[in-house]
Amino acid sequence: MKGLLGLFSLKTLALVMGVFLGWQALVFFRARPPAYTEAQQQALAATCQDFARQLAGKLNAAPVRVGVAHLFGDDRDTATTLLRAAVASLPGCRIEEQSVIQKFLADISRAVAEATSLDEIFTAGRKVELDVVIAGRVASVVAAPEGGARATLALYAYDVRHGGWLVKDSFSAQWQPGVMERIRALPLWLRLGFWALLAGLLPWLTAFATRWALEKKDNLSSIIIITCYTLADVLLALAFSVIRLGHGWLAPALVLLLCVAWNYRACERLAKQEGAV
């Protein structure tokens, strides 16, 4: 008995707390892990979607309260956040906002406080309002050739209602950038030059539109053509990330003015050429 009490002496508790605080200080001062790249985030999202599809086949149609525990090895919570979003998109799934530990302790505390018998105290764990608990770890997130990435997650879904595993597997997915992603990854000056080339050639590549406006012989047709060209140029600028909405108005306004001026000038030159013929 004396030895047992020694385990819980003030010195022992102080030592445990000191070791714990020392470890937390080490974690605090240690360099933060680098953030995932866009390609790695896309690979993680695809992996989480694969897990969600497999989980969907194991759930019934009734509303399910799901708790998603923080994934081991996910220092920046990126994978955990993507996993929560993937599961939340499943029909009938409601994600618990609190962490699994917080939810567990809160519901047990409430059950014990509201208990009217010893049986209710002993079975307080049944009052935890979670149907499915999801946990796991980030096994690996690595770069792939040609700007891609590959992610592997070990994920587990446990059915608290029936006491069994719904999913217990490793999931992997690879993401490769498409044409637009490759363009957006280029330096700004290259994207700007590529966009200017396409926007500049557009009226000449579609000279039939100017001929159509000339045949109509009214200003409305010319305005429609210039507006369409300008809209196409702005959409290209957005697609190539030359400009971005919500990052100030100066750059979009300047691009818009340049597009209108160039398209007007190009259509005027094309109209003169057609008239000369």
Description of the structure:
It is a single chain. The protein has 277 residues and is α/β, with parallel strands linked by helices. The protein has eleven helices and five strands. It has helices spanning 2-7, 10-29, 38-56, 78-88, 100-113, 118-122, 179-184, 188-205, 207-216, 219-239, 250-276, and strands at residues 64-68, 93-95, 132-144, 148-159, 164-175. The termini are far apart. A five-stranded mixed β-sheet has the order 2-1-3-4-5. A hairpin with a 4-residue loop joins strand 4 (148-159) and strand 5 (164-175). 57% of the residues lie in helices and 16% in strands. It is elongated, with a radius of gyration of 30 Å. Helix 8 (188-205) runs antiparallel to helix 10 and helix 9 packs antiparallel against helix 10. The model has no long low-confidence stretch (mean pLDDT 83).
Q: How do the helices and strands line up, and which of them pair or pack?
A:
Blueprint: H1 2-7, H2 10-29, H3 38-56, E1 64-68, H4 78-88, E2 93-95, H5 100-113, H6 118-122, E3 132-144, E4 148-159, E5 164-175, H7 179-184, H8 188-205, H9 207-216, H10 219-239, H11 250-276
Parallel strand pairs: 1-2, 1-3
Antiparallel strand pairs: 3-4, 4-5
Number of strands: 5
Average pLDDT works out at 83
Give the overall shape.
elongated
Ends apart, CA distance between termini: 110 Å
Summary, kept brief:
The chain is 57% helix and 16% strand. The chain has helices at 2-7, 10-29, 38-56, 78-88, 100-113, 118-122, 179-184, 188-205, 207-216, 219-239, 250-276, and strands at residues 64-68, 93-95, 132-144, 148-159, 164-175.
